[in-house]
Amino acid sequence: MAATFTVEERWAGRKRSGGNARSASVEYIITQTYDVQNPNATSDDGEAIQALVGNSPDKWGTAEIPRASYDVEQISDRIWLGTVNYNYNEKEEDKFEYSFDTGGGTQKITQTISPLQVHKYGANAPDFQGAINVDDNSVNGIDIIVPVFNFSETRVVNKLNIDTGFKLSIFNLVGKVNASSWHGFAAGEVLFAGASGAKSGRFGDWEITYKFAASPNKTNITIGSITGINKKGWEYLWVRYEKSTDQNCLIQIPKSVYVHEVYPSANFSALGLGD
Predict the structure, then answer these.
(1) Is 182 found in the same domain as 270?
(2) What is the pLDDT of residues 220-234, one digit of tens each?
(3) Which among 242, 261, 243, 251 is positioned nearest to 179, based on CA atoms?
(4) 24 and 100 part of one domain
């Protein structure tokens, strides 16, 4: 037969701190109830801890400081001193770290896209309709910096939730873009670049860092004489050129534009990071 307990708050056993490090500790007297029908019933520290947790609040005071840890100390045959600590533990699952940079990425382009301007100098300069760095045989283009918003979120995940299914759900989303609006970005703008995890100690929870890159969608693009082009952030746009004669000079001008989906789209809700 399992032992039963009474748990009462110890007089003068409260401590409280304020400011940015709000915390509290509360002490309790845990007494194993004497059972006449089972006078030899014994209990261990684990049962005393269970009794303490079951009879102390999850949050303390009007500030609702969450319960962070607890311990018991046996002070006589059937009596324990229990202490419950309340604080804003940085490893709670509802806490997270966020970092970002807007350094951008590089991309080779072969075309000036409207409304950017091309200024021609020289007598009878051919009109390449925005094609860049053109010679007699090809359009060579240039490398430019394009806007890329790199960011990461670090969350604490309960160790009990880190199983094969969790790992596979993350693995299957690597190299995918968001199928619907997510974290304030429109569908197609966010690329999931993967995640890394670290575990503190044998019994600790996991810290998972999720890495992303965002690139803006563009609509109604004009390239040369071709209009109404739409491109999502991580789609790939390229231009096919044809040779034409302008003022008796052989030139390269845009003939057609292609926009490719190169990353599949997926629902990012499986990451557990909210909408």
Answers:
(1) yes
(2) 998 888 899 999 999
(3) 261
(4) no
